[in-house]
Amino acid sequence: METPLLILNFKAYPEAVGPRALELARIAEEESEAAAKAVALAPFIGDLAQIADGVDLPVLAQHCDDRRGGSQTGWVPPEAVRAAGAAGTLLNHAERPLPEATLRATVKRCDALGLETVVCATDTTAAQSMAAMGPTFLAVEPPELIGGNVSVTSANPRIVQETVAQVARINPDVHTLCGAGIKTGADVRRALELGTEGVLLASGVVKASTPRHALAELLTGFET
Ligand code: G3P
């Protein structure tokens, strides 16, 4: 996926599942095209194939398991994520954490299958061990700021700068993002100024009264 990048996580918000998921995905595709800025979508797993088929944006699973396809009721094997048309997957989101050994094995399996990985870290220390796993992206997201109205870029710019520096030191091929509380174009611009290559966000768009306007405004943060 190209950078700078805005990843819109649909989570399991009622505003973004089922038929409303495709509506939101189409809005994101139109605003990404209008702004000529890269947007990727992370819909609820039940909507993944429909969204991957319905819009021309990279689509990510919100999670996948270190399981092979087959008799795996209720699990999410990477092979099935790829078959659904996804370009990759989030992993270890604060709302869906994984044990470190499982995370390492899952990143490896996704890589072998050509799936891009966006590994989430709650702080800089966690980000260091995760950068060594070689994900495509590393997103630092302090859990206490997730879903709130104060952006990580203003509440704790140091964690963003430190994570960028440590990830670059450990694995310069990994692209660093940040997330949590990002709501405005100014927050996005600040994320780039702090050295990241983009943002991971959810409620600022999904729960906005007009998601289209909210996304368009966020994308102004990528304007040079
Ligand atoms: O995956 C991104 C998400 O955890 C951030 O949530 O609502 O603070 O943008 P939000």
Please characterize this protein's 3D structure.
The structure is a single chain. This protein has one domain: TIM Barrel (Alpha-Beta Barrel). 41% of the residues lie in helices and 16% in strands. The chain is built from ten helices and eight strands. It has an eight-stranded parallel β-sheet with strand order 2-1-8-7-6-5-4-3. The longest helix has 17 residues, at 19-35. 47% of the residues are buried. The chain binds SN-glycerol-3-phosphate. Residues 9, 93, 141, 146-147, 179-182, 200-204 line the site of SN-glycerol-3-phosphate.
Intertermini distance: 20 Å
**Cofactors and ligands present?**
SN-glycerol-3-phosphate
Strand content: 15-25%
Number of domains: 1
- Mean model confidence by pLDDT: 97
* Number of helical elements: 10
Major sheet size, sense and barrel closure: 8 strands, parallel
Tally of strands: 8
Rough outline: globular
